[in-house]
Design brief:
The complex is a heterodimer. Chain A is mainly α. Chain A contains 15 helices and no strands. Classes of the chains: A mainly alpha, B alpha/beta. The complex binds adenosine-5'-triphosphate and magnesium ion.
Chain lengths: 377, 273
């Protein structure tokens, strides 16, 4: 019942529709393939009818479904009709795009208000809502760059980037293999592992703690742009020098977080282990490391992004003719911005997958932590 | 120091003393100046005794147990446990400790929490399982083995921590307000269980409580303490028989001892004014 309440998004969308109708046509007069009045009417109908219908409907799910169809149908028609007319869009075009976007917003709001009963539906909604969100970033990007004729070099439309990705799969695959599967993964594992081991050493040997932490601090402050060329001189042009940069970048966050995590266990718990006359390693493995796990995972997550950035930037300073950073730096020189964006998209995807995997492992291992199980301490 | 410990050994063998404190004092150095938590404590606890410590908040009951457990170092006087220093006694795993809070590890199931000390002392898996089962039964937690501590109520958590100390099975049991968080009925039940366990096993138990009836019901001796500085003001021997049904708490004898404890506590309080 609550859902039948008029929403400001839908109201505003109707107002935008009305203004658009008053300021027609959608495309400039010199457009090569002007939009037929049938298409224009269809777009307006796709926005206005679901908008009005959503006022009348009682079920949140039903009005969300109608809004979903209307918003995406209208967006699809708008984008489809811009081809051949790039840069010719007039104000009504953008008003209708905004109206469609408002309907999608309302649709997402309705969907997130639904309290589904079954677990599958809940998972599906959890995925659907961010998917609609992401789709609209792409829709607006596509419609605005093409409708307003944004110069290709400034910002290519997503469709052009997707086409470039599709055409350059072998190159992209080789770059990913070079940068991610060699430099990033190797550097990440070695950097995190050594940070962890040194943290344990520093915990065991007090003089190391006092000596190492300040030096670690200094190393972490080293500018990557300064370190990368030196690593190339030391370890050569191949991926090893990039892995070295990644090791330097990931080592310190792991060290600091683990050292902090090792002090996270409570006094009473440590006293308890003391009453059992538990030795250093028993206390470490049975109490202090489990208690430190949230800190360690924090470092693993920070490092997953740092490693990717480090490896890509390091490739700007001398590489063999393969690698994501190498590709970005050479293609930008040739004004092939779509290739640069393709690499960025691949890097974003790889980074999200990397982060997601670490976060999933974290949820599985620190299930007991209040922040994960969402309960009281 | 070494001399006194050796002398203590000689005497404790004769008198069968488990805990022997002489002129014991402890001063905490805090940022607001020294805090005298214990002063001039002279106390001998013999094997098989059940000694309760009672007194107002802040009188040093926890501190005294922690000194016995080698979690706190005395600044004056001497203390010996089974004729050893507290440090040696701790290394010899001479005692089990139940803290004021449950202190269960949230990443371990209840049964693995109870089994934690057994893992540390390196018992066989079979022996661990047997002891876990026995002590979980004793505190009525059967059926909750696979649960995590945060899935249990506060009282159940405290029972799990008692099971953990019992599974450890040391001859000296130090319990710091173990039943403070429990409801009356569960408390009565656990009091009975604890008494039975104590009679059967001939353990020595040091038990901190705020409840006069609980102290009188359980103990062979009641140590009344008073604060600022924490010290022993009265030691009351119980004349109750070893066999104690719950309704002994209505007997005149019981009430007489309770009245003495209450007087002792009052005296300690009025001392402040
Ligand atoms: N680690 C510490 N540092 C400084 N002062 C302390 C410390 N531990 C205890 N004290 C002080 O010593 C005194 C005795 O504390 P203790 O915890 O032994 O009291 P208690 O009798 O157990 O009280 P309660 O019944 O409230 O548990 C208190 O005044 C307390 O403030
Ligand atoms: Mg206390």
């Amino acid at each position: 019942m609550m859902n039948s309440k008029p929403s400001w998004q839908v109201g505003l969308a109707l107002v935008l529709c009305a203004i658009a109708m008053a300021t027609m046509p959608m495309l400039a007069n010199e457009a090569v393939a002007p939009m037929s009045s049938g298409t224009t009417t269809l777009v307006i109908a796709l926005i206005a009818l679901p908008a009005v219908a959503s006022f009348a409907m009682f079920s949140g799910l039903a009005s969300a479904a109608v809004l979903f169809i209307g918003a995406h149908g209208a967006a699809w028609l708008l984008i489809a009709n811009i081809s051949g007319n790039e840069g010719m869009a007039r104000m009504p075009f953008f008003l209708l795009l905004a109206a469609a976007w408002l309907l999608a917003w309302r649709c997402v709001a309705l969907l997130s208000a639904i309290r589904p009963l079954s677990k599958q539906v809940r998972t599906f909604l959890r995925l659907l809502i961010p998917a609609i969100f992401g789709a609209w970033i792409l829709i607006i990007w596509e419609a605005v760059t093409r409708g307003a004729g944004v110069p290709f070099i400034l910002l290519p439309p997503p469709s052009a980037i997707a086409a470039r990705i599709g055409n350059s799969l072998p190159i992209l695959a080789a770059d990913v293999r070079q940068t991610i599967f060699k430099a990033v993964l190797f550097g990440y594992f070695v950097g995190c592992a050594s940070g962890f081991v040194v943290a344990i050493l520093a915990d065991r040997v007090p003089f190391l703690r006092r000596g190492l932490l300040p030096i670690g601090n200094m190393v972490s402050a080293l500018p990557i742009i300064g370190v990368a060329p030196i690593m190339v001189i030391w370890f050569g042009f191949e991926w090893q020098s990039k892995a070295a940069v990644v090791i330097i970048m990931t080592f310190f966050p792991m060290l600091v977080n683990t050292v902090a995590g090792l002090t996270a266990s409570g006094h009473m718990e440590r006293d308890l282990m003391r009453t059992y006359a538990s030795n250093y390693w028993q206390t470490l493995f049975k109490l202090r490391l489990p208690a430190a796990a949230p800190f360690i995972f924090n470092a693993l997550k920070i490092n997953s992004t740092l490693a990717l950035i480090g490896a890509i930037v390091a490739e700007f300073f001398g590489t063999p003719i393969v690698g994501m950073g190498f590709r970005i730096s050479t293609e930008i020189g040739r004004m092939n911005v779509d290739m640069v964006w393709a690499e960025i998209a691949v890097a974003a995807l790889a980074g999200s997958v990397f982060y997601g995997v670490v976060a999933l492992i974290e949820r599985a291992t620190t299930f007991w932590h209040p922040s994960v199980r969402g309960g009281r301490a | 120091m070494l001399m006194t410990v050796n002398q203590a050994t000689a005497t404790s063998v004769e008198r069968n003393a488990v805990v022997e404190a002489r002129q014991l004092g402890l001063t905490f150095q805090t940022n607001d100046g020294p805090v005298r938590a214990l002063s001039d404590v002279n106390l001998t606890i013999n094997k098989g005794e059940f000694v309760s410590f009672i007194g107002p908040s802040g009188c040093g009951k926890t501190t005294f147990l922690r000194v016995i457990a080698d979690l706190e170092q005395p600044t004056e006087g001497t203390i010996s446990i089974n004729g050893m220093t507290p440090e040696q006694a701790r290394q010899a795993r001479a005692y089990g400790y139940v803290f004021q809070a449950a202190a269960l590890f949230p990443w371990r199931t209840i049964e693995n929490n109870v089994g934690l000390p057994l893992e540390i002392i390196g018992l066989s898996k079979a022996e661990q399982q047997a002891r876990i089962k026995r002590t979980m039964d004793l505190v009525n937690l059967t059926g909750f083995e696979k649960k995590y501590p945060w899935q249990l109520s506060g009282g159940m958590q405290q029972r799990a921590s008692i099971a953990r100390a019992l599974a450890f099975d040391a001859d000296l049991l130090l319990m710091d307000e173990p039943f403070g968080a429990l409801d009356e009925i569960v408390r009565d039940h656990l009091n009975e269980q604890l008494l039975r366990l104590w009679r059967q096993t001939n353990k020595t138990i040091c038990f901190v409580t705020h409840s006069i009836p609980e102290a009188v019901y359980l103990s062979t001796r009641i140590v009344v303490m008073s604060p600022r500085p924490g010290r022993v003001t009265d030691v009351i021997e119980s004349t109750l028989p070893a066999e104690r049904p719950l309704d002994i708490r209505e007997s005149p004898e019981f009430l007489a001892i309770a009245a003495r404890v209450r007087d002792g506590l009052r005296a300690g309080h009025s001392y402040e004014d």
